[in-house]
C-alpha cells in the first residue's frame, strides 16, 4: 500500500489573455523550430476567444470536483494543480508542495491515451520538476495508469452518443440511424513515427501503435453500448483525426475529420455525430477544430451535425479518477481493476522504451522505468 501526501493534477496549460498567446505557443513548440508565422496562424484560434484558453478554468473546476469527491469519500488527500506549458507551472507547484511537506505525490495527467505527447512527455516534465530545483532524491511522483478504457472515462461518451443520436432523430424525423448517420470519433492527430512508437513495443500494435489501437477499442465499446437496444444492426462509425500541426512532408495519422466529412454525402449520409474521444475537456482543439471547422464543413456538405460533450466534470469521470488514485493507494490487484476493452487495464509503470519520441530521443522520465 502506498502513502501519498497529495494528488498532483497535471494539465497542458493555456493562455489567459491576449498577451499570453504567443509566449504560450512558444512554450508548447520549444525545440521544434516552428516559425513565428505558423505560431501566428495558430494564435488566431486563441484570439478568436479573447486570447483565453478554456483549459485552465476547466482544470480549476476539475480540481474542485475532485476535492469534493475525496471529501465525500473521507479521503484525506489534498489536490494540487500544475501545468506543463503555462502557469501554474509544474516545477513551481512541486517545489511549493515540497515546502509544505508534500514529497510523495500521485499524479493524474489530463490525458487518457498512450503516446509521447499524451503520456511520456508528462512523465518527462515530472522528472524536470524535481531535477531542476534539486529535489530528485527528495520528491517522488507516481502516476495513475492510462485510463482510456476506464468506465469513468468511457461512460460519459456512451451517454453523449445516445443523446446525440436522439438529437439527430428529433431534428430529422424518419432518418435511419444505421444507414444515414455516421458517428465520427475524433482525436488529436500525431506524427506516424510517434504513433508507431506509442505503447510498449512487445505488444505489437502495428502502424498506429497503442495510440490508434486504444482509440479504436474504446470507440467499439461506445458504439456497441450506445446503439438502440432493440436493434441488431450496427451503427456506422470511423476514427478520424484533427489539429495536425506538422510540415506537409511529415506523415501524420489520417483521415482528417474534414476530409472524412466531405466524403459522407456520396454514401447517403445525412447526419454526423462528432465524438471528441481523445479529449478529457472542451479545450481549444475542441472549440475551434470541432465546433467551428468540422461543424462548418458538415454544413457546407448539407449534413446535420451534433457534437458530444467531453467528460469535463461529469460525476462518473470525477469518481473514476479518484478510483484510479485509490487503486494505487490500496495496491488493488490487476484482476480487480475495471477496464472496458481487452487492452486494459493499462500499466501502473510504463515499460522501458514506451512512447519514444524518435526526433528528440529519450529524456529522464518519472513514473516509469529507465529506457
Task: Please characterize this protein's 3D structure.
The protein is of the alpha/beta class and 371 residues long. The chain folds into 2 domains: 6-147 and 313-336, Rossmann fold; 151-307, Rossmann fold. The chain is 40% helix and 12% strand. It has helices spanning 21-29, 36-48, 55-73, 90-99, 116-131, 151-171, 192-196, 209-226, 257-262, 284-300, 315-330; strands spanning 6-11, 79-83, 104-109, 140-143, 181-188, 236-242, 271-275, 304-307. It has a 4-stranded parallel β-sheet, with helices on both faces. A 4-stranded parallel β-sheet has the order 6-5-7-8, sandwiched between helices. Helix 3 (55-73) crosses helix 11 (315-330). The longest helix has 21 residues, at 151-171. The relative contact order is 0.17.
Tell me briefly what this model is.
The chain has 371 residues and is of the alpha/beta class.
* Count of DSSP H/I helices: 11
Low-confidence stretches: none
Fraction in beta strands: 5-15%
Could you say what the CATH architecture of the largest domain is?
3-Layer(aba) Sandwich
Distance between the termini: 26 Å
Average pLDDT reading: 94
- H/E topology pattern: EHHHEHEHEHEHHEHEHEH
- The tally of strands reads 8
Read across the widest sheet, the strand sequence of neighbours is: 2-1-3-4
Global structural class = alpha/beta
Instruction: Specify the helix fraction band.
Output: 40-55%
- The value of Rg in angstroms is 20 Å
Reading off the top of the CATH hierarchy, the class of the largest domain is best stated as Alpha Beta
Summed up, the domain count is 2
Shape: globular
CATH fold naming of the largest domain:
Rossmann fold
Give the biggest sheet.
4 strands, parallel
